[in-house]
């Protein structure tokens, strides 16, 4: 990803509707898993500029890793522990983490099944992998090209890959379902236009607030949404 996009992400992540929605879902699921624990050892893979690290840090010690030196620099400037390394092939020791979070990371990795096996290796028995990935290959656009994605996923597809890596599925669902029809229509209207171009744009306060509210209204429905959405959420457990 271009350096300018990291700077844009760092500026947007606190208020941009998409990031706010993802943080809400991640926060709810972690609290349900570990309501009484605040001593977890957590690996944040592909941490980027740290949009979700505060949520993770509420539950324990977080090690953030990213291939990008720029992302690591921004994380360290914000006071977080961060190391530059390949998240799909780490030098880290076996079975040391209670939770591995990979939020919109797997789609960047060519050998995605190997990455899932690696994250399973790093988990303690009974530990969890929490994933989010973009949904549906037919929604492929210039934004995916710009971000150097390798693929998009169906829910059943990512669940099968996790099972193949020796993990059991705890929860799987689509999210951003209420905005899905509009977003899908926009993507389909631009079908064939795959020029690398970021779709991360600053909205006006009213538009961003409306989209944020729509995503918040979806939260009660999220756990049962296996129909459609812009993104996929899966929580899996190591036996």
Give an overview in words.
- The chain is of the alpha/beta class and 239 residues long.
- The chain has one domain (3-237): 3-Layer(aba) Sandwich (Rossmann fold), CATH 3.40.50.150.
- 38% of the residues lie in helices and 21% in strands.
- It contains 9 helices and 7 strands, in the order ααβαβαββαβααβααβ.
- Strands 3-2-1-4-5-7-6 form a 7-stranded mixed sheet, with helices on both faces.
- Helix 2 (17-33) runs parallel beside helix 9.
- The longest helix has 17 residues, at 17-33.
Structural key phrases:
239 residues; alpha/beta; Rossmann fold
Question: What topology emerges from the helices and strands here?
Answer:
Blueprint: H1 3-12, H2 17-33, E1 40-45, H3 53-57, E2 60-66, H4 69-77, E3 82-84, E4 97-103, H5 112-122, E5 123-134, H6 142-146, H7 155-164, E6 168-175, H8 180-189, H9 205-218, E7 231-237
Parallel strand pairs: 1-2, 1-4, 2-3, 4-5
Antiparallel strand pairs: 5-7, 6-7
Helix pairs in contact: 2-9
Strand order of the largest sheet: 3-2-1-4-5-7-6
Largest sheet: 7 strands, mixed
User: In what range is the share of β-strand residues?
Assistant: 15-25%
Number of helices: 9
User: What is the H/E order?
Assistant: HHEHEHEEHEHHEHHE
Mean pLDDT: 88
Helical fraction equals: 25-40%
C-alpha termini separation: 35 Å
Q: Which structural class is indicated by helix and strand composition?
A: alpha/beta
CATH level 1 name: Alpha Beta
The Cα radius of gyration reads 17 Å
What would you say about this model in short?
The chain has 239 residues and is of the alpha/beta class. Helix content is 38%, strand content 21%.
């Amino acid at each position: 990803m271009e350096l300018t996009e990291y700077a844009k992400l760092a500026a947007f992540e606190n208020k941009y509707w998409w990031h706010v929605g993802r943080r809400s879902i991640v926060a709810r699921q972690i609290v349900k898993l570990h309501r009484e624990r605040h001593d977890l050892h957590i690996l944040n893979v592909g941490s980027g500029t740290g949009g979700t690290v505060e949520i993770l840090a509420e539950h324990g010690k977080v090690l953030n890793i990213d291939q990008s030196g720029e992302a690591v620099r921004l994380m360290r400037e914000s006071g977080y522990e961060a190391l530059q390394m390949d998240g799909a092939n780490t030098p880290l020791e076996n079975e040391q983490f209670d939770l591995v979070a990979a939020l919109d990371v797997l789609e960047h990795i060519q050998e995605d099944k190997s990455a899932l096996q690696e994250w399973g290796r790093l988990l303690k028995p009974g530990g969890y992998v929490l994933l989010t990935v973009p949904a549906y290959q037919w929604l492929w656009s210039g934004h995916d090209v710009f971000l150097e994605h390798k693929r998009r996923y169906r829910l059943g597809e990512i669940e099968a890959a996790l099972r193949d890596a020796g993990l059991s599925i705890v929860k799987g669902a689509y999210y951003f379902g209420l905005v899905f029809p509009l977003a899908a229509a926009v993507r389909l209207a631009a079908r064939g236009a795959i020029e690398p171009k970021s779709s991360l744009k600053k909205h006006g306060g009213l538009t961003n607030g409306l989209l944020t509210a729509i995503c918040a209204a979806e939260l009660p429905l999220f756990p049962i949404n296996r129909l459609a959405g812009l993104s996929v959420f899966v929580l899996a457990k190591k036996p």
